[in-house]
Amino acid sequence: MSPTTARRPGGGRKPSERPSKPCAHCGLPFTWRKKWERDWDNVLYCSDRCRAAAKRDRP
Q1: How far from chain centre, in Å, is Cα 55?
Q2: Where does the record place the region Disordered (predicted)?
Q3: Which residues contact 5 (CB under 8 A, 6 or more apart)?
């Protein structure tokens, strides 16, 4: 395994072994994806739909 692969949260792992966290809007768990590699800590929503719904529901 290369040093860059070891640093990534989900890189080089089977899908069942990748990190996951609950969506801030719907509460369903979602797993790490390659496109979220650089900002996984900042990803709060599982989809654009949940992000838009959370914006609508804010007071």
Answers
A1: 18
A2: 1-22
A3: 11, 12
